[in-house]
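REQUEST
  id: r-88c1
  op: predict_structure
  target: Type II secretion system protein J
  payload:
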Amino acid sequence: MMSVQVTPTGDSSRRRDPSRARGGHRQSGFTLLELIVVIAIFAVFSLMAYGGLDSVLKTRRQVEAAQTRLAQLQKAYLRLRNDFQQVRNRPARDGFGDLQPALRASDRGDVEFTRGGWRNPLNLPRPTLERVAYRYEDGKLIRMSWRVLDQAQDSKPVENVLLEDLEDLRWQYLDAQREWHPRWPPDTADRQPAQIAPPMAVEITLRTKDIGELRYLFRLGIDSGRTGESPSAETAPQPPRGDISEASE
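RESPONSE
  id: r-88c1
  status: 200
  body:
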């Protein structure tokens, strides 16, 4: 039997080079310019996101600060209203033994009065009346109270800052003739100061740095030695308006 041997000729006799086969496919990836563009776009979006987040956080801080300030003003209003509604017509002696009217006030933003309703849950040997004062100093409204009604020379008040960041403060007091006065007892009083009953109503005007001007009108308690009831805040005549800065001059 004859055998035929075929000898490969031409390109079929060559082996394929793997490196050539791989080189036939184009490699994929990012060029340097494409990376720079992507990074720039990412940076722009990051700045936009940070700016939006920062704006949200600032707004949140402003809202929280406004809520805190509003809570302080509401607390101060309730404290003032509670004090003036408990005013009593009971004169008291100061540290020098001089008899002072039940309510006295200067035109410098200070007011001092006798109030009732001082709670005594422990049944301590003390009255339910106390001496309370408000003082305006360095942009602060300070409340002071004494442990004794008739003070001695060594009597010291308990102080509590009620409001801060005030630009100015002014008090006005309504008498029985429905006239407003910047101090109490008024200059037109024809009796001894200790014999002057408390006013019928009190108005406080506050000028704040952040909110502006606020006015609170309080009716005093009816137990103040007068005949009849005090006018309500709605029926009391409005005090004369003027530049609030006059109160501090």
